[in-house]
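FW: tagging you since you asked about this chain on Friday. Here's the raw sequence from the shared folder, copied in full. Didn't touch anything.
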Amino acid sequence: MVVYVRTLPLFFAYMTETEDMPDAPELLQACHVDGFEAWLAAKGKSTIHLLFILTKIIVALREVASEGAVTFSEQLRDRLAYATLRPIPPSHPRDAYSPYIARQLRDAARADIMGIVQRLRDPKPMNSHSGLLAMEKEVHAHIEAKGIVRHTDPKYHVLNDARRVHGLSSERLCHQLHERHYLTSHDVIPLIVFLALETGLEPECCKTLTVDCLRNPANGTVEIAYVKRRARGAEHKTLRVRDGGPRTAGGLIRHVIAWTAAARKHRPNDCLWLYYGLGGLKSGVNYPHHRIDAWTAQHDIRDDDGRPFHLALSRLRKTHKALWYLKTEGHMTRFAVGHTKEVAARHYANLPALLPLHESTIADAFTEAVTSASSSIVLTPEEEQTWRSDPVAALEAAPAGCDPTSLLDGKQDIWLASCGGFFSSPYADPGSPCSQPFWGCLECPNAVITARKLPAILSFLAFLEDQRLSLSASHWAAKFATAHARITMQILPAFGSATVEEARRVLASEPVSNYMPPEALQ
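HL: got it, structure written out here
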């Protein structure tokens, strides 16, 4: 309803400005709606904002038409059948703030919160002059008894005049007097920012929290009961959060309840947010953006490009989700708190702010795959001959610290390859024997695979196929899938069909035990 109250006057403002106000509702025409749309566009409204306003006007006119009290023209009724003929671009969902900005916001909010704790726990006198201290005590006693002191109160005038005599400024005197008793409108901003970043609650949910919102404390946690009006049919929700000091979400709410207890005596209200502002005690949260901008400027918060930062509270939930996504390393079961995995992935994991992470993850995966595929050295007979004829080039290409000739002559042969460093394995401490299973040679940078090892590799491949029949699919995949893919997709194709067929003939004439280790046959 509030949206319509704000939107409908725009339609009348358009007709007044264009001097095209009909004398009666029945005289309203389709051109008025089209003209209003063009007028909004000329005012610089974005397509989404324009559509939002125009839809409210059309819905209101449809309601008028459905009541039957006013009969619109046929052209207008046809125009009310659709919102706009303008192309509607795809919406751009809110993005999260970067971890750099989130850290600045969190640090600034925490600093302010600790300042509030200190201010309300141990209020300091505004000056040290004994005469002024006595006057201040009278004003503070008046605030405790009556709730507030007004500018017109005699006690306030006496203190104000006395401060002027002593050369003290009274520019924010009323605010300074009340902030020793209550939260102020300036305090609410860091409280909301910290709560939204810690819990991921939408700002509108934070603003509507009640004084009895904490429930079911257990094991250092507590539930926050809140209302999400957009969740039609499931508006009442709970969220379990950490409960401790004011640096935790639960502890902060407990402190806010305690801080507002004095104000609640003078202004009974179940809203969590009760504070001093604009000369009186206020409830609820409704403040202009310039106050938020003043807070970010006060703490010199900067964006990623070093420019002054403009805070949109609506982006804090996405920021919380993005930080949680980074913490859970994208594990959807842990990440999807309060949502299905599909909704969490679509609305909170697919954020522009997380694009660098996703791109780097994909790049790392490709790099790992390429490194894994090319880690061991595969020498075809032609390349083996090149190594023998050019020892210098062979020394550069072979695993570090090994003798290429010794490798080629079979003096360092193991089960599936020739090993260039059995006691300098990348998988074990220097000087210790390699700790990998024998098929780890297929991916080891110390391994050199030549045609001489093909019979053993083919025998091992047959063993893998046999194991596929006896093991579960998941067990076989976890243990042997990588080795199987390495053999069938990379090693065997590298040698060519003729060389592989020759190795098969050798394998057929030799017993399997010559090539398979005992543990593989158990």
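FW: The first helix runs from residue 2 to 17.
HL: agreed, and The CA atoms of residues 90 and 258 lie 46 Å apart.
FW: great, closing this out.
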